[in-house]
Protein 1
Amino acid sequence: MRAVIAEDSVLLRIGLVKLLDMAGFEVAAEVDDGEALLAAVEEHKPDLALVDVRMPPDFTDEGVRAALVIRRRHPDTAVLLLSQYVEERYAAELLTTQGGAGLGYLLKQRVADVEEFVAALRRVAAGGTALDPQVVAQLLLRRGGMDPLERLTPRERDVLALMAEGKSNAGIAAELVVSESAVAKHINNIFAKLDLPPADGAHRRVLAVLRFLDGAS
């Protein structure tokens, strides 16, 4: 799989190149700003773009804006955003406006957990999602009385939050210390309560996550 990296910190960029190489990716380009990222994606048509949220020249939302363009022009390119701080509106904006398949949003501190970070890279490149637990927690805290997911039980919300992090049924079961069959039952209940029609299981998981994000935006 081919990847491009957009990160203005030279040291972090070097580390990311090594991590992606270890994970089996071919790093086609490494750049330090949004315009160079768009040019690299246009040239190399990568499977994955690993993008810093804040880059030159303004260090605000250059990475997010570039990611939105990538998703519009190159929908087959997965995008994993990295951020120094929790900026949940960016996660909600990207996933709810561009579709959730092949998208992730992680804090940079997660890079230190190499095994988990590599798993997130592979999951997003394969069309899944990976949301940082701290971002998910912020999304939950932002909800008020008009919560569109109010039909869900507390346990079903826990399951949906872990789905948003990109965890599999087995991963959710381990996190909540329940059986996989119990997780499967909760997920089916979530699909029913969110009025998600029968479809491909992975697709419905993405739709459920989008509902989760949309309710927080």
Note: The chain has two domains: 2-137, 143-216.
Protein 2
Amino acid sequence: MLTAERSFAIFYRLLSHRTANNSHAMALDLITPVTSDDRLHPNFLRTLDAGASGVRAVLQGWADGFVDRDGKFVHEFQTTYNSGFWELYLFAVLKELGIDVDFSHAAPDFVARDLPLVIEATIASHAHDDVPEWEKTLAGITHDQLGPAYVQSIIRLSNALLGKSKRYDSYSAKPFMAGRSYIIAISNYGTQDFYMLGDVAMQRLLYDQYEEKQVLKSNGAPVAVGLFRSDAFKHISGILYSTTATFGKARALGNDEGDFVFQAVRIRNNLEPVRIIAQKKDYKESLIDGLRLFTNPFAEHPVDLNWFDDPGVRIFAAEKDGGLSISCHPDGDLYARQVHNLIRRSR
């Protein structure tokens, strides 16, 4: 028996017969399935749902102007989803900030046309022996102790960051890279409860404000923290980071009708939690709300903070002596958000 999601996948396949050969000649079609139904990612199937037309419209808007340089993006978006979603979101953010992207370069992911800036995108994924975020369990998102959750998140974020740190070696010799700030953009899907953990794990990984020096994996192996406390990573200018650039972001920005309830937390003045419970018609969130920028005080090519001048970007501007200046959104910085779709039972 076909599920509703599989039925919609078949419907969209029949609706359009665009081929990959035409991907550069027309607007990117993210939605029409290009592979067999059993290979479509669970999060992509959610995007095909009848009640997600607004989400689809948001994603297509994000993709406006995006260039599929190797002809693989749509396939990878539909089969792996999260990394492609993150790239589309980042591209939308860059457009919002007025940063034009030069797609004539094969890599890194985003090369600014008129600024000395490149951005390499990645996600922190779940461990191979852990439950993925799209198969959440009650035990995985409800627990009394945040400490272990933060440590697991730090470990997954470290893996993502170090992988892209090594990638810099293959980029640095390219002539266009000279004098450019190298930013790694990381979206956190590393734990089932990632969307509730905010930016604490990244703060600890980069700045080690608790003087931990390291955290331990379950097998006892150490993972270093405080990566931006010395010049060991001076080739990395900063980290863009989000736990809120998710399906819920597209839901918040879209115009889907339905009984959606948003639960969110904003942090006002870096201290006061502002808890929000609102129906969709009363809930407000900008595209850039929830994005973080962590600067490296030892960077060879520092980030110009004016590039990211938007109240939605919470900026952590670090100093070599350990000082840290943190920007504050006037309405509170978006820290966490989840969306509930209430389904009323008929009598």
Note: The two ends are 26 Å apart (CA to CA).
